[in-house]
UniProtKB/TrEMBL annotation, chain A:
It comes from Ficus carica. GO terms for cellular component: apoplast; cytoplasm. Keywords: GTPase activation. This is Guanosine nucleotide diphosphate dissociation inhibitor. InterPro entries: FAD/NAD-bd_sf, GDP_dissociation_inhibitor, RabGDI. It holds the Pfam family GDI. The keyword Coiled coil does not apply.
UniProtKB/TrEMBL annotation, chain B:
It comes from the Eukaryota. One of its GO terms (biological process) is protein transport. PROSITE patterns: RAB, RAS, RHO. The keyword Endoplasmic reticulum does not apply. GO terms for molecular function: GTP binding; GTPase activity. Belongs to the small GTPase superfamily. Rab family. It is a lipid-anchor. Signal peptide: none annotated. Its main location: membrane. This is Ras-related protein RHN1-like. It is found in: Endosome membrane; Prevacuolar compartment membrane. GO terms for cellular component: endosome membrane. It comes from Ficus carica (Common fig). Keywords: GTP-binding, Lipoprotein, Membrane, Nucleotide-binding, Prenylation, Protein transport, Transport.
C-alpha cells in the first residue's frame, strides 16, 4: 500500500462502496480499506452468530431459530424505490448483474390505530377505507393531476407554476383534508416532517409520481424492491465494481489514521506502519470523529418472528409508515419486515425492524407503538445508534465525510448524499438518466 | 446459480479462485475468446464473462466470475461464492506457494460456498515443465482427498482448457438429470 492513490476510501458501508465504484469507473486510482474483517460497515447484514455476538455478549443463539448461516439481518434496513435513485445508480454502473432483486409485497400506512394499504393512484384512492366518500373523489382528482403532470408539457400544469405554488396551496386547491395530506406526504412522498408544505410543490408532486410509477413497474403490492440475501449484498456489489475498475481492497486494517500536513490538508492514511499517500480521503463519520458532530440518534428494535406483520395481507415483505402525528411524536416511525422469501431467514421465519429518530433515551418505551403491531415475537433486540454529520470543509482539508444513515426505511436520502459527495469529489455531476427498463428486465427474470 | 430454463437450458455461475498470477483470467480468456497473452495484466475492467456451451441436448450459459483482484489482500466478498454451482481452484505448477494457497482457497470455499458446489482443481502453466515445482501426483492426490476433479492445463498452449469446461458442463448435466440443480 506504499503507493500513491487519487483517493483513499475508509469504511465499506454502502455510501463509501458506491462512491468507490463510481470513482474507479471515473478513472481514479482508489484504495479502499476497512477496519473490520467484513464488508458493509454499519450497513452490513449479519448472521445469527454475529448478531448474538454483537447484542448478547457472545451468548449462543437459540436452536429453534434455525441455522445461523441462513440469516442475513440488515443493520440498516431499507427498501429500494423501483424507479428511485439507487436503482438508477445500479443500472448506470451495471452492478445489477451481480445481484438478484424481488419486489416487496406491501406498503402500508398507520392511521387511527389501524394498518391500511397506501393508495397511490386514482383507482386505489376510490377503494381506500382511509378516506370518506367525498374525500375519495377529491383525492382521485389530485392523483389524476399528479399522474398527468409532465415537466415539459405546460398543458398538464393546469395553469400552476409548481416552482412558485407551495405544496400547501396545491393541496388546498384540491380541498384535501389533513388526514389525506398526512398519508400522501409521509407514506407516498416520504417526507419526514411537514416543512415541505411551505416549499414549492414541484418536489412534492415528483415524489408522489415516483411512488406511483414505481408501484406500476412490478405489479406488486408496493413500489419497493429488495435484493435477495439482504442489503449487505449492495456494498459488496459496488466494491466488486470498484475492484473490476482497478480499485484495491484491504479489509481488517486496524487504525486507518488519516495524516494531515501543516496546512491541515489530508495527504495519506496510515495503517500497520505503512502510509498510503493520496490526494483525497473519503470516509464514514467513524474514521474522522473530530470532523463530525452528533445530529441525532436512531432507536430500533430487531424482532424475530414466525409470522408476517398482522393486518398486512400476509405480506412476506412490507413497509408500514406510522406518521408522527398518529403517535403524537415529532418524527415518523417505520416498520420494516422481510423474510425467507428474500433469502434473509430460514423457511417460515420473518425479521421485523421498528425504527425511529429517537426522542427519548428509552427505546423500549418509545418503540412500543410499533412493536405492538407485530404480534408475538420469538426474540427481540433493542439498540440505539448516534447519527453524525460532517462539520469540515473539504476544500480546506481534502476530506469527504458521509452522513450517518437515518431511520427511514428507503434509500432516497442515502443516494442524495452519495450524489452530492460525488460532485464535490470530482467536480462533475453524475448523469443518472438511464433506461429504467433495464432494471425491470433484470428483476423480472428472477423467480 | 444454476437454473433450469425450459428444454434443458441451464444457467450456471462459475467462480475462479486462486492466487494472483496463477492464470485465472488467462484460462477464461482462452476458453471464451481463444486468446492468450504472455503478459496478461492484472484483471481490470472485465471480470464477468458469459459463454454458452452446447452439449448433447443441453445448453449451458456460464456466468463466469473472475476475482477482479480482490483475492490479493484476502478481501473477496461473500457474494462471490453465493450461488456458485461450480468453482475452479487454480494453481501454478511452477510455484509450490500457489499450490499451498490453493488448499486455503478450497477450505475457504468449503466454509463459504454452498455444499453442492462442484469443485475443480486446475494445475495451470503445464507448458512450463522445466520449471515445475508441484508434481502431477501431488495435485491429483489432493484433489482426490477433497472430492475434486483434477486437470493440468495450459492457457498458453490451450492444453486441456476446453476439456476442463467440458467436464464442468458434464457434471452439471448429470446433476440436472438428478434434478439437483434447482436445489442449489
Amino acid at each position: 500500500m506504499d503507493e500513491e492513490y487519487d483517493v483513499v476510501v475508509l469504511g465499506t458501508g454502502l455510501k463509501e462502496c458506491i462512491l468507490s465504484g463510481l470513482l474507479s469507473v471515473n478513472g481514479l486510482k482508489v484504495l479502499h480499506m476497512d477496519r473490520n474483517e467484513y464488508y458493509g460497515g454499519e450497513s452490513t447484514s449479519l448472521n445469527l452468530n454475529q448478531l448474538w455476538k454483537r447484542f448478547r455478549d457472545g451468548d449462543k443463539p437459540p436452536e429453534r431459530l434455525g441455522s445461523s448461516k441462513e440469516y442475513n439481518v440488515d443493520m440498516i434496513p431499507k427498501f429500494m424505490m423501483a424507479n428511485g435513485a439507487l436503482v438508477r445508480v445500479l443500472i448506470h454502473t451495471d452492478v445489477t448483474k451481480y445481484l438478484n432483486f424481488k419486489a416487496v409485497d406491501g406498503s402500508f400506512v398507520y392511521n387511527k390505530g389501524k394498518i391500511h394499504k397506501v393508495p397511490a393512484n386514482d383507482v386505489e384512492a376510490l377503494k381506500s377505507p382511509l378516506m370518506g366518500l367525498f374525500e375519495k373523489r377529491r383525492a382521485r382528482k389530485f392523483f389524476i393531476y399528479v399522474q398527468d403532470y409532465e415537466d415539459n408539457d405546460p398543458k398538464s400544469h393546469e395553469g400552476l407554476d409548481l416552482n412558485k405554488v407551495t405544496a400547501r396551496d396545491l393541496i388546498s386547491r384540491y380541498g384535501l383534508d389533513d388526514n389525506t395530506v398526512e398519508f400522501i406526504g409521509h407514506a407516498l412522498a416520504l417526507y419526514r416532517n411537514d416543512a415541505y408544505l411551505d416549499e414549492p410543490a414541484l418536489d412534492f408532486v415528483k415524489r408522489v409520481k415516483l411512488y406511483a410509477e414505481s408501484l406500476a413497474r412490478f405489479q406488486g403490492g408496493s413500489p419497493y424492491i429488495y435484493p435477495l440475501y439482504g442489503l449487505g449484498e449492495l456494498p459488496q456489489g459496488f466494491a466488486r465494481l470498484s475492484a473490476v475498475y482497478g480499485g484495491t481492497y484491504m479489509l481488517g486494517k486496524p487504525e486507518c489514521k488519516v495524516e494531515f500536513d501543516e496546512n491541515g490538508k489530508a495527504f495519506g492514511v496510515t495503517s500497520e506502519g505503512e502510509t498510503a499517500k493520496c490526494k483525497k480521503v473519503v470516509c464514514d463519520p467513524s474514521y474522522l470523529p473530530n470532523k463530525v458532530k452528533k445530529v441525532g440518534k436512531v432507536a430500533r428494535a430487531i424482532c424475530f418472528m414466525s409470522h408476517p406483520i398482522p393486518n398486512t395481507n400476509d405480506s412476506h415483505s412490507a413497509q408500514v409508515i406510522l406518521p408522527q402525528k398518529q403517535l403524537g411524536r415529532r418524527s415518523d416511525m417505520y416498520l420494516f419486515c422481510c423474510s425467507y422469501s428474500h433469502n434473509i431467514a430460514p423457511k417460515g421465519k420473518y425479521i421485523a425492524f421498528v425504527l425511529t429518530e429517537a426522542e427519548t433515551d428509552d427505546p423500549r418505551v418509545e418503540l412500543k407503538p410499533g412493536i405492538d403491531l407485530l404480534g408475538p415475537v420469538d426474540e427481540i433486540f433493542f439498540d440505539t445508534y448516534d447519527r453524525f454529520e460532517p462539520t469540515n470543509q473539504h476544500d480546506v482539508d481534502n476530506c469527504f465525510i458521509s452522513t450517518s444513515y437515518d431511520a427511514t426505511t428507503h434509500f432516497e436520502t442515502t443516494v442524495q448524499d452519495v450524489i452530492a459527495m460525488y460532485s464535490k469529489i470530482t467536480g462533475k455531476d453524475l448523469d443518472l438518466s438511464v433506461d429504467l427498463s433495464a432494471a425491470s428486465a433484470a428483476a423480472d427474470s428472477e423467480e | 446459480m444454476a437454473r433450469t430454463g425450459g428444454n434443458k437450458n441451464l444457467q450456471a455461475k462459475l467462480v475462479l479462485l486462486g492466487d494472483m498470477g496463477t492464470g485465472k483470467t488467462s484460462l477464461v480468456l482462452r476458453f471464451v475468446k481463444g486468446q492468450f497473452q504472455d503478459y496478461q495484466e492484472s484483471t481490470i475492467g472485465a471480470a464477468f464473462f458469459t459463454q454458452v456451451l452446447s452439449l448433447n441436448e443441453a445448453t449451458i450459459k456460464f456466468d463466469i466470475w473472475d476475482t477482479a483482484g480482490q483475492e490479493r489482500y484476502h478481501s473477496l466478498a461473500p457474494m462471490y461464492y453465493r450461488g456458485a454451482a461450480a468453482a475452479v481452484v487454480i494453481y501454478d505448477i511452477t510455484s509450490m506457494d500457489s499450490f499451498m494457497r490453493a488448499k486455503k482457497w478450497v477450505q475457504e470455499l468449503q466454509a463459504q460456498g454452498n455444499p453442492n458446489v462442484v469443485m475443480f482443481l486446475a494445475a495451470n502453466k503445464a507448458d512450463l515443465e522445466e520449471k515445475r515445482k508441484v508434481g502431477v501426483e501431488e495435485g491429483e492426490q489432493y484433489a482426490k482427498e477433497n472430492g475434486m476433479f483434477f486437470v493440468e492445463t495450459s492457457a498458453k498452449t490451450a492444453q486441456n482448457v476446453n476439456e476442463l469446461f467440458y467436464e464442468i458442463e458434464l457434471s452439471f448435466e448429470s446433476m440436472s438429470d438428478a434434478n439437483k440443480l434447482e436445489a442449489i
